[in-house]
Task: structure prediction
Amino acid sequence: MSAASGTVGSTQRAPADALVAWARRNGWVLCLLVLLGALFVFTKMINPGYGVTGLQGFAISVLPLAMAAVAQAICVIGGGIDLSVGSMMALTSVVAATQMKGQGEEFGVVVVVGVLLLGLVLGAVNGSVIVLTRVPDIVVTLAMAFVWGGSALVILASPTAGSAQWLKDLVLGSLVSEWIPKAAVLLLVIVAVVWIPLRRTRLGLSIYAIGSNQLAAFRSGVSVGRTKVAAYSLTGLFAALGGLSLTASTGIGNPVPGPYTLLSVAAVVLGGVSLAGGRGGVFGPIIGVLILVLIQNDLAFLSLDPNLSLVTQGLILIGVVMFGSLIQWRQGRR
Amino acid sequence: MTAATQTAARGAAGGWRRVLREQPMIPLSFILLLLVIAYAVARPGVVNADWAGVILRAAVPLAILAGCQTLTMLTGGIDLSVGAVASMAGFVVASLVNGPGLWVGLAVALTAALLAGLLTGIGVGIFRVHPLIMSLGVSFVVLGLANAWQIATVTSSTGTVPEFRIIGSDRFLQIIPYSLVVFLPLAALILVGLKRTGYGRMLYAIGDNPIAARLSGARGWQVLIVLYVISALMAAVGGFLLSGLTNVSSVTLADSLVLPSVAAAVIGGTSIFGGRGGYVGTILGALILTVLSALLTALGYPEAVRQILFGIIIVVVAATYTRVIGET
Result:
């Protein structure tokens, strides 16, 4: 009886309580947002000329890494980790560039759709190998990173230009107001179209379920293998989006994977997604990426030695994560 | 009757699997042998004592770095900073040898490695940051500082110290590599340390069940700090040998060995989740990867195809291994 009334009470909570609860649940992301805001203010202070062009350049440079972070977040939430994200981005970027080179603008649409499908397939291969062989995720994706990276080199030995004009126009420039870069809109639209509806579906819930407790998920009727393959396919899809945004923003396909794999893992952890799985979302990692890249830009504005800026980035990453786990630990003790 | 034979057969199969699980060296040696035979078939007449010496020499730095992964993986961790620490150590010695001398260089390099390991260990042990992230962050810091050091000292020569070159690449009677002088005692130390000392047992205990280890009195944070310091020092030694082997001192020299070192430990049967594995398997894993990449080079494939085959074979070996010993 008392339990029942308790449930009723909790569902009829005042909106203010719900807001507090929401803020508490998303406390880490809110903290990151405050940090990001402070960083923007700091950027404006050290570089008063920072304005429209700076913001646009920032949005474009962030886009590939943000896609990589979303890709990484999905499989980490599902209890895995994908060390082949960077290689998949290189492979899809190379395929896009070689196929679009010298072709008509309309053909570019076919290529983009094809590359997205390719991303899904690459991810599905990763996931299937993990499920079928029962070898740990980290080992399989590590090995697959060699496979996808090698395939990119087979297709294209050195960076080559090739991108449909409309694809470049999709990420370069701004929309409505010059303060809203197209790249940022694109990122939000893609995440809103793919991830937000997905989260509410059975598949989305299943991904969180297998990430938080595989056995419990299995016992409550989740098909663990199929969900895992689906999660990795989504990772592949976002990696392909990352590869396409590389091609679109630079106009070339580069077969050498950038530092995206490890940076995406860093952004995911910074964004409050637990590496143990089952916790977090994709917006935290995106904000994590913004922070990582903005810090890098600020250090460049301060005309600091780029090597020392790498040191600073590493120290900030360590510091933030240490702070986060300290908070978690204290909460656990209470 | 049939039921009895079935039970007997199942018992025999179970026993066979148990032997393989407890002796991972048997299937691994078999794979290694297969690869050597494949090499002998691909390039007839090349496989001899001289070739074996070359392979051993190439496998030693990888085996040392894979040792770092083995030790950290036993506690359920991983050390991605080995590449940065190893390259930094080799580079620092090469940059100091012409001024202050070899011993100062060695001392500075080992101190720097110790500090890097201490930082990782404090993060993992006290602040409980995930080792993957902690060692990644430390590798950024180490690489950045090494780069800054490179610019500060303006080292023009890219070659390494002659002493390293002798130990890293020369061979006794043109067969037995001198790097074994460093590697064999180190390997013996790790093997005995894991099997016979309280510290070694504690690594297994923490990886197997951290809560049980804590309740039985192990101070996890102390063990972990010491562990990551040991790992960084080993990485530095691996870096010395690697720079001697390749006669290059660069701040990114060992980066390409980080992922193979993880692969070698995993192929060698060390569980990435902790609590199970050992160093003998890792050494065999490092040999397997070295022979494999030599084989792919000997077959004359271009770099890209070699990468693809390398990846596929790692998956196949890991999968076969998992299947054979019946682990989930």
Q: What stands out?
A: Chain B touches chain A through 49 residues (CB under 8 Å). Chain B has 14 helices and two strands.
